[in-house]
Amino acid sequence: QVQLVESGGGLVQAGGSLRLSCAASGIIFGTNTVAWYRQAPGKQRELVARITSGGNTDYADSVKGRFTISRDNAKNTVSLQMNSLRPEDTAVYYCNLRQGWSGYDYWGQGTQVTVSS
């Protein structure tokens, strides 16, 4: 069965850094598109960063230059390095995998990131 598990969230001061990790079982990150989404209280879920099987990356304008998505195929994990964090980055962050041949979305349970001012 496919499972995605996020980790690495926490509370940090503005300007600090966090590294989120998503570990997969039952599916291979390296042959699919993987993304990080986030949802703040009272807000819609939004795309933060995405990486394709070919290594192409896309970022939301609000995080460009501060966040980096990467993939470790040997460990079957995807990470999100978050630097220069701002209070508006506070949200629950979710790992997402879109299975290319079916278009089916798999989601993790989320990890809380809180940035204090």
Describe this structure in words.
This protein is mainly beta and 117 residues long. Helix content is 0%, strand content 53%. The protein has no helices and 11 strands. The strands form 2 sheets. Strands 2, 4, 5, 6, 9, 10 and 11 form a 7-stranded mixed β-sheet that branches. The mean pLDDT is 96.
Strands, helices and their partners?
Layout: E1 3-7, E2 10-13, E3 18-25, E4 33-39, E5 46-51, E6 57-59, E7 67-72, E8 77-82, E9 91-98, E10 105-107, E11 111-116
Parallel strand pairs: 2-11
Antiparallel strand pairs: 1-3, 3-8, 4-5, 4-9, 5-6, 7-8, 9-10, 9-11
What would the keywords be for this entry?
117 residues; mainly beta; seven-stranded mixed β-sheet; four-stranded antiparallel β-sheet
Total beta-strand segments: 11
Sheet bearing the most strands, described?
7 strands, mixed
What is the radius of gyration? 13 Å
| Helical/strand content category | mainly beta
Mean pLDDT comes to 96
Uncertain regions: pLDDT < 50 for 5+ in a row? Answer: none
User: Total number of helical segments?
Assistant: 0
Order of helices and strands: EEEEEEEEEEE
Coarse shape: globular
User: Helicity range of the residues?
Assistant: under 10%
Strand content: over 45%
First CA to last CA: what distance? 41 Å
Quick overview of this protein structure:
This protein is an all-beta fold. 0% of the residues lie in helices and 53% in strands. It has strands at residues 3-7, 10-13, 18-25, 33-39, 46-51, 57-59, 67-72, 77-82, 91-98, 105-107, 111-116.
